[in-house]
Amino acid sequence: MAQHNIKFALNHMVNPRWSPLQLIETASEMGIGAVELRNDVGENSINDVASAQRAGERAAALGIEVLSLNALYPFNSWNEERKAQAETLAQWVHAAGGKGLVLCPLVDADTQYSASERRAKLEHALTALESILGQYDLQGFVEPLGFPISSLRYKAEAVDVIRSLGLSSRFSLVHDTFHHQGAGEVEFFADQTGLVHISGLEDRDVTFSEMLDEHRVLVGERDRLDNLGQLKQLLSDGYAGYVSFEPFAESVHAAQDPVKSLRDSMDFIQKFIN
After folding, report:
1. CB 108 within 8 A of CB 80
2. CB within 8 A of 112, min separation 6: which ones?
3. 41, 188, 152, 209 alpha-carbon torsion, rounded to 10°
């Protein structure tokens, strides 16, 4: 059986109470090689060039890679406001020495698009973003969200548009184990995946179509999302990038010893993935 040494990363959602510097320092202390910064964690957000530079300098000093800033939302509702946001966030990623920008689609029960509308909006947004991200040689990490009311649920749709536009060198997928299961998607697209987000679902009273971010915990033995199966498939298919923890549940954020909780989840995953 193949042995897989997983490269773990910490998304700032593991503990929004930490400052960006605390996140980076915790990753270093845990022997984790990369972090994802966020612009949506209140006072601890990256919110200007200066905060991005401080985080980037600390990460560089400790040998920690900044994978992304999370996120531009809703990236596929492209307009002048979105363009300005994208330009600003790209500057922040660059200032932090980051690799790319996470791109999340519109999730809105009152806004439903036809297949042709979804494609047109995705093509428009990616074409515009290619120019903006290209100024700083950044990656765009497209993250389909598996909620029933999402305007981009399936990785297959994103891959088709990225390939048709000839933009595979600029854009790759985020395979999020929560959203993969929520969308009921079967294909994995390891060769098109630039980043993996992991979180678990343990609540037995919540269906995959009903689950929300607030249900997302660390991956453990009671996980219902088949994180282990998903990771095994991705790794077997050749994915060699980072696997980033992204739990949203308040129970995770309020843990007495968040580092121990993360280590326990890492140990569980590594033990059963091999």
Report:
1. no
2. 149, 151
3. -80
Q: How much is the average pLDDT of 218-229?
A: 97
Q: What is the 3-state secondary structure (H, E, C) of 64-119?
A: CEEEEEEEECCCCCCCHHHHHHHHHHHHHHHHCCCCEEEECCCECCCCCCCHHHHH
Predicted pLDDT at 3: 60
pLDDT at 1: 41
Q: Identify the weakest region by mean pLDDT among 45-49, 108-112, 143-147.
A: 108-112
CA-CA distances (angstroms) from residue 273 to 128, 132, 169, 186, 234?
39, 38, 29, 19, 11
Q: HEC states along 226-267?
A: CHHHHHHHHHHCCCCCEEEECCCCHHHHCCCCHHHHHHHHHH
